Every structure is written in C-alpha cells, then in structure tokens.
Amino acid sequence: MAVQLLHHVMRVLPELRFRPTLKHLTVRLGSELVAQTGHAMLVWEPKRVVPAYAVPQRDVSASLTPRASAGATAMAPVSLGDGPPVLDPRTGFGAHTTGGEALVTGSALAANAAFRPDDPELAGYLLLDFDAFDWWEEDQPIMGHPQDPFHRIDVRASSRLVRLEHRGVILAESDRPQLLFEGAFPMARYYLPRHDVKVDLEPSALVTVCAYKGRATHTRRSRPARNCPTSPGATKIRCWTPPA
Q1: CA 39 – CA 31 distance, rounded (Å)
Q2: Could you confirm whether domain 5-142 is CATH 2.170.150?
C-alpha cells in the first residue's frame, strides 16, 4: 500500500535521528577556536524538527566542564499540520529530549553550550549549541541553525492574484507575487513587490534571521491607509525585506 511520505516522517519524530555530513566545520567563540572537524553529524533529538551539529569530542579544542545543576529549559511544543506537537528553534538548546550530560565549553563558559548524548551510535560526539558560537561550513559563515538536507525551499514567480485586506480595505494587492514553498509546511508564503503595497511603510528596528533566507529587515505601516480603520488590529501590517 502506498505511504504518504509526510506521515512516515512524522512517525519517526519521537526517535533520536542522525546523519553524517561531508561539510567541514569551524566553530569559534569570539577569537577562540572551539572545534574544527571534517567528521560532523547532523542530529535531531526526539520531537525536534531542526537539527543540531554534533562534532567528535577529539576535535574540540576548547575546555569542557560538566554543567552545574540548573533548572530545566522550558519546552514550547508547536503544531505542525495534523501531526503531534513538535519542538522548533523557539525551544532552546538546553531542553534535551534524549539522555546525556550537559557541558559548558570555552573560556567564556557559554551556558548550555554542549551536550554529550548517551546513545551508543553517537559515542564520542558532542552536540553544540548553534546560538552560543560562530559557525562556518567550509569557508562560508552560516546563521540561524544548520540547514536540514531533507528540508527543501522553493521560491517561484507566480501570476496568482494575492490580496491583503482588513475590514474591506485593500492593504496590498499583486498579480506578480513570489511564492515560497517550504518542506512540509501546509501553506505557501507570499512575497509581494513593495510597489504593490497600498499603505505607507517606515523602517522598523526588527531584524530576523533565517537559516535559508538569511538576515532580513522589517518595515511597518507608518500611518493608516485612506478609509482604513485605526483600531490596533488594523495598524499591524509588517513587511519582510530579504537581503539583496
């Protein structure tokens, strides 16, 4: 009988999963070399949808110290379609769903920086907190989190009509959107030319990072559109501007 692939993937989410990578990694904490290796692995802890990098302990240059007892990092499960709740990057590295020992590493003793899993398949490997360090794959810096080799992103030019309205007032309308299709996400995301936004925009202080799309600045509506209600819910249009 045919298998719906997404259902198959969701069934293994409760398991500890790993995959070796061919990429050479360099990990730094400021000017300090933490690790350099050509034998890294991508590791998904149970319920995690985004991988962490694990490196051989022999390739870690920084000092390692068992972490003193501390309160558990809170988990924030989220829904992904009609499957069971999962953990995305909003749940911090310190929330572990497999057995092991938490460590701190480097002269600055970065909190929650490393984790030694108990699983025999990962013997001799340490998971490192992506947010605690600066990372390079080969000679290229990376941001956000390690990219998942099984998670594809496609952006396609489209002629679909996309209209954004609030209480009958058109805020944006375009028949030339870019549609972003991401992995198993249940909907497309829409990116419109700025010219097709019908309200005035001003820069926002918000900056976000995506492992796939890079660092982005945001803008917000500077004043209500003509005939547009001024209730709080009507004033929160925000636009995402990817790097050039």
Answers
A1: 22
A2: yes
Would you say the pTM of this structure is higher than 0.70?
yes
Domain positions in the chain: 5-142, 153-241
Q: How far, in Å, are 63, 66, 92 from residue 70 at the CA level? A: 20, 12, 14
152: number of Cβ within 10 Å = 11
Q: Which CATH superfamily is domain 153-241 in?
A: Domain of unknown function (DUF427) (2.170.150.40)
φ, ψ of residue 171 to 5 degrees: the values are -95, -30
Contact 191, 177 (CB under 8 A): yes
> Token pair 């709080």 is at which residue?
232
Sequence-distant (≥ 6) Cβ neighbours of residue 216 within 8 angstroms = 207, 208, 209, 210, 240, 241, 242, 243
**Beta strands 110-117; 125-128: pairing state:** antiparallel
Rounded Cα gap, residues 103 and 25, in angstroms: 20
pLDDT, tens digit, 9 for 90 and up, residues 194-241: 899 998 888 888 888 888 888 888 888 776 545 444 444 434 455 666
